[in-house]
Amino acid sequence: MARDFYEVLGVSRTASQDEIQQAYRKLARKNHPDVNKDPGAEERFKDLNEAYSVLSDPKSRARYDRFGEDFRKIPEDFDERVAAGGGGGFRARGPAGGPGVRYATGFGDGFTAQDVDLEDLFGSLFGAGAARSRVPGADQEAELPLTVDEAYRGGRRTVTLAGPAGQPRRYEVDVPPGVTDGQRVRLAGEGGRGSGDAPAGDLYLRVRVQPDPRFRLDGRDVHVQVPVAPWEAALGATVPVPTPGGGTAKVTVPPGSSSGRRLRLRGEGMPNPRGADGDLYAEIRVMVPPTLGDRERELFEKLAATSSFDPRRT
Questions:
Q1: Domain 140-209 has CATH 2.60.260.20
Q2: pLDDT, tens digit, 9 for 90 and up, residues 173-190
Q3: Domain at 5-132, CATH from 3.90.1150.10, 3.40.50.1100, 1.10.357.10, 1.10.287.110
Q4: Where are the domains of the chain?
Q5: What does 134-173 look like in DSSP terms, one character per residue?
Q6: Do 134 and 194 form a contact (C-beta atoms < 8 A)?
Q7: Sheet containing 262-265, strands listed edge to edge, beginning at the edge strand earlier in sequence
Q8: Membrane spanning segments where (predicted)?
């Protein structure tokens, strides 16, 4: 029994595109086979991908709302063909008339929600055998979640999505280094199947870079906080800074640096195969010891007694 795509994502039929996307992200993270080892997680994950690939595209969502689970059997230019060819002459079937597709025609001819045989429908609209006509497959889209490190390095990834007949299908994807959030990776011929000998559509994987506790991305620029001790901030120091991809860089903290000061490392952000690499912005964050030893306390007390610095008047 085919499941309702809205039910799969746990949203109402009036849900906005943002609500659909948020629901998918939450459930996909929870049920991803690499994270969730529950035996049913992979099945739920493929159901989520199939539901999102349809409901995230306004056109395919509109066709799904109109024609239900058989929407893929209806040509995308159905309304245009109806306008050109007329809507009469096909036979509506009741429950005893054999298999059919339940849909709302909107023709205004009394067929508002009836079981209609597809072959009769297409034959009357477009000529005999039109149900088996050459209709190219539809392009499809799914999300490709990546960590910041994976987006930085790129490389080969294995992606599991729902395939024909709901069976999980694995794809080998070459992710370019420095891919950014929202960028699409095209898999030619891996979309919806065409009818007859028509070509299949393409599958587009839209990159979603997952939140990272270390980094904040702004396009190809990377922002990272750099903890420094009070004496490093006051006297200056050279400290290590993590970079995407698992590496480190050295940043020079100028004497007299306060929390919030930003230091720019040119070209140390996300790589760009077609232009200048992004920059890395290291933001100083002055940290104090959570507890003090006797000698440390003594030194801080001497500093407090000696210094004329007042941060509230600076």
A1: yes
A2: 999 999 988 888 888 888
A3: 1.10.287.110
A4: 5-132, 140-209, 215-290
A5: --PPPPEEEEEEE-HHHHHH-EEEEEEEE-GGG-EEEEEE
A6: yes
A7: 215-218, 221-228, 280-286, 262-265
A8: none
